[in-house]
Amino acid sequence: MNKQISRRDFLKIAGGAGLTVAGAGLLPQFLRKTLLAEQVVEAAGEFDLFFAGTDGWISMPPSPAIGFYWPDDLAPANFNTYIFGFRNITGLNSTQISDQKMKAQHSAPLFWVDQYDGTNEFRLQLTNLGLQMRPDLTDSHTLHWHGFRNVIPFFDGEPTGSISVPVGRNFIYVFRPRDPGTYMYHCHVEDVEHVHMGMTGPVFVRPLQNGNTSLYPSGKFAYNDSDGSTGYDREFAMFMSEVWAEAHWADSHIQLPDWSDYKADFSLLNGRAYPDTLVPNAPINAAASINALAVERDASGDLVAPDGRPDLQYQPLSALVTCQPGERVLLRFSNLGFRETSMTLAGIQMRVIGRDATLMRGRNGANTSYETDTILVGPGESFDVIFTAPAFSGGSGSSGQGYDSYVLYNRRLTQVSNLDDSGFGGQRTEVRVYPGGLAAQQYPNDWGM
Ligand SMILES: [Cu+2]
Q: Hey, is 240 helix, strand or coil?
């Protein structure tokens, strides 16, 4: 059987079932035939992406030790911070998949989907590889698409209102994304812990308007704007998260953190703290990056590290922005840390064209976008900003490096320095304007070189 259950059918059935409660004894069988998890899975059929939840190790930049919590004394060579996280295991065989235990990445894999056009449901299968450092925990995982407005509870991922994925099981989430924009996703099981431990990442919904080269030459848009105002040449995810060293140590040492003591030690952009934010992406297979950033994998299915940086093997996504004069650059900010961020792009005005996956337009169509150099992004919020790359000045301050450099950083001292007295760390990166020579972007956060 491969009959698809549409959202409308589901509501009709659920409503109908409710009406029959007082009536004939049809209800149990009726529910059994329509609402069992296995049958929805069966109805879902093939998947577009296959993710795994597991645990693993990442690396924060060297800084003074944080009590006895960090660097973590259980960390394998090259790493210092324990995480829970996701991996993209699409295309791996079953042996390779089980070999990805304790090889989670942070931030979680960047993926994107096309707006629903009536036919293109998006299916993401999730499996649970368990937590290798925590044999005492049998936590399930889910994939919750934060801010998504039209999800039926079954696929929402909030574990008390829908199902979750136990160790060793698979589940296919089915989406019909109707609202373009920048979202974030996370595991919703034990969510303070699983979110903070790293099961968080960015996801974009691409508008139906994409491909319309008469509105903007690239044919790439953030929203269905009808006038080309959200057209862009390059796009970059700016995903924000945090590491509280004590909580990560507690999870690797089978202790319980007290979340009311929360005090983040590291603030991250795309899973990295400055200056690692400037390190290139891990090698990307551009041709395979159809629905997700396809980080190159070795024969065992493990991630290939950025060149010369084995410590960043499980932090594949760069936060450096590269562009050429006159190009429109879309920055997709989202925040799943637990604190508000204050992101400033020094020397370039940004135009806020979307917030929380909503085009900046009033109900009467009025344009409510605005220019600023600073945005305040609360936990769970997203901002879409576009700036036009300024003329190449020949390098005031760039000392012959061949590009102009503009700093993009969090104005909050604790979140930009990580309180390391070297001044390094935190949510800081650069926008580099090259005079020319960059290739067109093939995937988000592609440097074009
Ligand atoms: Cu989880």
A: strand
Structure token pair of residue 408: 């993009």
Ligand 1 center to 124 CA (angstroms):
16
Helix, strand, or coil (residue 267): strand
Q: Please count the other Cβ atoms lying within 10 Å of the Cβ belonging to residue 279.
A: 18
Whole-angstrom distance, CA of residue 7 vs CA of residue 13? 10
Strand, helix or coil for residue 423: coil
State the distance from the centre of ligand 1 to the C-alpha of 247, rounded, in angstroms.
15
Helical H runs in 45-107? 94-98
Question: Using alpha carbons only, what angle is made at residue 255 by residues 252 and 260, rounded to the nearest 5 degrees?
Answer: 110
In single-letter form, the type of residue at position 209 comes to Q
* Start-to-end Cα distance in the chain: 48
CA 119–ligand 1 middle distance (angstroms):
30
Separation CA 159–CA 124 (nearest Å): 17
pLDDT digit string (tens) for 82-124?
A: 999 999 999 999 999 999 999 999 999 999 999 999 999 999 9
Q: 147 CA distance to ligand 1 centroid (A)?
A: 18
Amino acid occupying residue 241: S
Helix residue ranges, H only, 21-133: 27-35, 37-44, 94-98
Cα 390 to ligand 1 centre (Å): 42
The pLDDT tens digits for 388-429 are: 999 998 765 555 788 999 999 999 888 888 777 776 789 999
**Cβ–Cβ under 8 Å, residues 406 and 345:** yes
Query: What one-letter code names the amino acid at 153?
Result: P
Could you tell me the distance, in angstroms and rounded to a whole number, from the CA of residue 194 to the centre of ligand 1?
5
**pTM for the whole thing?**
0.89
Q: Are 198 and 83 in contact (CB under 8 A)?
A: yes
Centre of ligand 1 from the C-alpha of residue 14, in Å: 28
